Model the fold of this input.
Amino acid sequence: MSSSRGSLPRYIAIRIVLVIPMMWVLLTLVFFLLRVAPGDPVSASLGGKLSAQALDSRRAQLGLDRPLIVQYLDYLGDAVRFDFGRTISDGQPVLDVVKNQGGATLTLTIGAFLFALLIGVPLGRIAGRYRDSAADAGIRIFGIVTYAAPIFWVGILLVMLVAKLFPSWPTSGIANPFTVFDVPTHTHILLVDAIISGNGVGDVLKHHLLPCFTLGLMLSGVIARLVRVNLIQALKGDYVEAAMARGIPTRRVVNKHAFKNALVPVITVIGLQIALAMAGAVLTERTFNWPGLGNALENYLVNRDYAAVQGLVTFLGIVVVIVSVVVDIITALVDPRVRY
Amino acid sequence: MRSLLSRLWDTKGLARWILLVGLVITVAFIVLAVFAPWIAPYGFDQTKVDGVKFPKVGHASGDHLLGTNDQFFDIWSRVVWGARTALEVVVLSVVFSGVIGVPLGLVTGYVGGWWDRVVVFVMDAIYSFPSLLLAIIFSFLLRGPLGGGIVAAALSLTCVYIPQYFRVVRNTTVTAREATYVEAARALGAKPATIMRKYLFGNVVQSVPVITTLNAADALGTLAALGFLGLGIQPTEASEWGYDLSRALDDAQAGIWWPAVWPGLAIVVLITALTLVGEGLNESLNPALRRRRLRSVVFPRRTPATAKEAS
Done:
């Protein structure tokens, strides 16, 4: 036991050190992909709108006339300092885009994970506890269908359903325009700002419900599947048999002994699902007209703004890497078996 | 090939049904795709017949089985032609990523050393990146040189799925490399190329069918997502379910459900079917999971005469 306690800091250190080459590969990939593209970013997004001279000066302004290697090193250096460049089409720093619109994506994703856990964990638990029953079969089908159904299609169906049953319930956007106007900006996260000022919390929460539920539904399938498999495995364990032999009621054995161990891998999967959730968020935002990063990304894609796309993708990639490392570390803290 | 089929046929229990149901639905979609010109009543971008324009978002009727959408297209025809698009894109992208991923994995796994480490690292980095974002970048880039057609869509999916083939093939190669038969071949003086082609390839490709079907399911979802974001196949090029869903989005709140329901249903059913095939294949080809249907052994009746002979 003493040796494993000593290795925890080492594990965390290794995990953090490994991030550096990973980030580097990721950044290099993004940079060169978007630079080998035919045509340079400025003429792609502004070509035809400005004279050749104006385009040249724009290029010089953005530093695109320098050698590629200089631009690359510059890009790496900036990314380390969390500077993701400027957009070409509207000339604002990408970091400002992230600040202004990242909050909506953040609350959407957190809400989605809450729903995913609320739906997935109990379902997985029922399926695992009553294996091979009708409920188990139904929950497994639910798992496959949530994977197969495109999230935007589920979103559209839910919008239609809600519009029919509760016509006054909001199905688009993050808040009423009036609410947005009423809430003073502190953190750029509308939900938090609304709570601070006490204005329109209900309205913002109402708008959150449907998109968060949609994204959460997609994520819940995997969680249900995982809890099921782990519970089945845990129930086969010797310690469960020992507890049963001692005459502890089955319900208590499942609740107290098996279930807790079945939950640990869920934390890991949440880490793995961040990438999936990111992709899901982009699609959910489009479906519900949600003013988040996915929507911003889509707008810049339509405008063929390479610099903005590069900056936003870099940011999202870094977030995915950081979150997965943090989740790994949390798993190691919770479960001593993971450390090496 | 024959032994493969008989192995599939001899699978037992739930895996057999999963596989069969998945296969039947998948084949139905392939039939739709192949015979689209005969099954679909109208062209995928046809908006009028004999000079009479179709109704806009018209209800289902005798002329339009599933109604028409906001672009005056016949929805049933769009669904059928969409199956063809899906088939073309998925087959192309699966073939491309297999053709690149399998040899790359084979060579990398066999050669080993620093080359192996570098390639594995790069592939892992690609793999850890959200696949939809990657597909978005690639389709964004390929849009310029290739236009918004089927080839561009297939190539952007290819780039996303190469790492998956690479991983599986590389890992199997690394284990197979140390096997006795490879050592024997090496001792006989076989060149690395020969070993890879004649000895390793046959063993390594066994795991490919399972990833292929699961990738195909995933690729369909990604294709639809690209279409939904307006980055996929353009409506003038071919009919694509995801694009149709993005068009249906605005009308959905007004209670116009038919343009949204049918293309989405097609996606769900086909992805589910492919997933079932993948799971079924996995359970029937993977020796660890396989449960065979064994023919029951019938012993000859022990009659007094045979008993005497036996003794």
User: Anything to note?
Assistant: Chain B has a mean pLDDT of 82.
